[in-house]
Structures are given as structure tokens and as C-alpha cells.
Design a protein that fits this description.
With 199 residues, the protein is mostly beta strands. It folds into 2 domains: 48 residues, RNA polymerase II/Efflux pump adaptor protein, barrel-sandwich hybrid domain (OB fold (Dihydrolipoamide Acetyltransferase, E2P)); 110 residues, Beta Barrel (OB fold (Dihydrolipoamide Acetyltransferase, E2P)). Helix content is 0%, strand content 45%. The strands form 4 sheets. Strands 8-9-10-12-11 form a 5-stranded mixed beta barrel. The protein has a 4-stranded mixed β-sheet with strand order 1-6-7-3, with no helix packed on it. A 3-stranded antiparallel β-sheet has the order 2-5-4, with no helix packed on it. A hairpin with a 4-residue loop joins strand 6 and strand 7.
Length: 199
């Protein structure tokens, strides 16, 4: 462990513990195994800090087997169950792209969507949608957020006939390949191309 526990950004091989600072958000973005807090990127696991100075990214290579529980900073895929104007509930089915046998309930508040306050979540997601989110907090309940092009709806079905919705080329616009119905979602950059591994 580093003698400078507060900042791990100068040592690419540093062993870090949860909560340890890797650097500021100006120095790099939060990737796998890390999370942002008050302008800093911190480790979510015990492991080795991987600092990509060229790409300006921070990530962690865990030293132990990944826990099957959504932790702060992780990317999860969740199936939307219920959507109200300001709150959606979802069942988390995958953590960091890996399918989990036991699902967890997550809560997505409108204030955690797109880096702004979304007044009506029903306009950008529907029950049954698969959404990639980031775990904001797991203290008590699991709170989710969507911010950045990597996060958002990755798979959706038509509200009229149930057919698959395909991208039209226009921002956040989808079209049913069966009936031609046009719908709006807050989609991730890789919408329609995501596969969840079961191993």
C-alpha cells in the first residue's frame, strides 16, 4: 500500500483499497472499479490501480473475485419495471456486463438522469426496457444514475405491438420494425448492440 494513501495517481502498480483517491476528474475519467466523489476518482475495490495517462482513464484490477452485489461506481444493466414522472424502479440483471443469478432492485430518480433534472421519466424510458446505469449509492437502497453516452436504454420494444425498436439515426428516436411506430428513449451510444455474458 502506498505511503501516500490520499493520492495514487503517480504509481501505476499501486495497491489500493476502497475509497482511496486515484486522482481528480480533470486528470482522468472514472472507469471499471472506480467512482466519482466531490471532484475526485476513487477506488471501489481492493486491487491494483490502472492509470492510463494517454487516454486519461482510471480503473481497478480487483485482487479478489468480483462480488455479486452492485457496488458504488459499477456499471449495471437493469430491466425497468415501473416508471413514474420522477422515479423508476428496475431489476438489476447484470453487473459490469456479467449476468447474475439473483436480481436486485434499483431506483432511478429523475435528478440522476443525463446530468440534469428530467421532469418526466416516462418520456425517455418504458417498463420492459433494458437500461445501462451506474450505481450511485448502495447504502440502504441501490440508487442508479444515467450520465454520459455510455449509459441509457440499450434495448426496447414497441409500446403498441411489442416489436423491436431500431435506431432511426435521429437522436434518441426509435422506430418499430413491425408497425412503424416512432418512440423516444434516452438511448446509450451502443443501443441494439449489447450482449450480456452469462459466464
Amino acid at each position: 500500500m502506498s505511503s501516500n494513501k490520499e493520492d495514487a495517481s503517480e504509481n501505476l502498480e499501486l495497491l489500493v483499497i476502497p475509497g482511496e483517491k486515484l486522482g481528480s476528474i480533470e486528470e482522468g475519467i472514472s472507469e471499471f472499479g472506480t467512482y466519482e466523489e466531490e471532484g475526485n476518482v476513487r477506488a471501489a475495490y481492493v486491487g491494483r490501480a490502472i492509470v492510463d495517462k494517454e487516454q486519461k482513464k482510471f480503473s481497478i484490477l480487483p485482487l479478489t473475485k468480483m462480488p455479486v452485489y452492485p457496488y458504488k461506481g459499477q456499471s449495471v444493466i437493469a430491466k425497468i419495471e415501473n416508471v413514474q414522472n420522477t422515479l423508476a424502479t428496475a431489476q438489476i440483471i447484470a453487473i459490469e456486463g456479467l449476468f447474475i443469478n439473483k436480481s436486485f432492485t434499483g431506483f432511478l430518480h429523475s435528478s440522476r438522469v443525463g446530468g440534469r433534472y428530467e421532469k418526466n421519466l416516462r418520456r425517455i424510458m418504458k417498463p420492459g426496457d433494458l437500461v445501462r446505469c451506474k450505481v450511485i449509492s448502495n447504502e440502504g437502497a441501490i440508487h442508479l444514475g444515467i450520465s454520459g453516452s455510455f449509459f441509457g436504454v440499450i434495448e426496447a420494444s414497441c409500446s403498441i405491438c411489442g416489436g423491436a425498436l431500431k435506431k432511426t439515426g435521429r437522436r434518441n428516436q426509435l422506430k418499430c420494425e413491425n408497425c412503424g411506430n416512432i418512440e423516444t428513449r434516452l438511448i446509450a451510444s451502443d443501443y441494439g448492440a449489447v450482449r450480456v455474458s452469462k459466464k
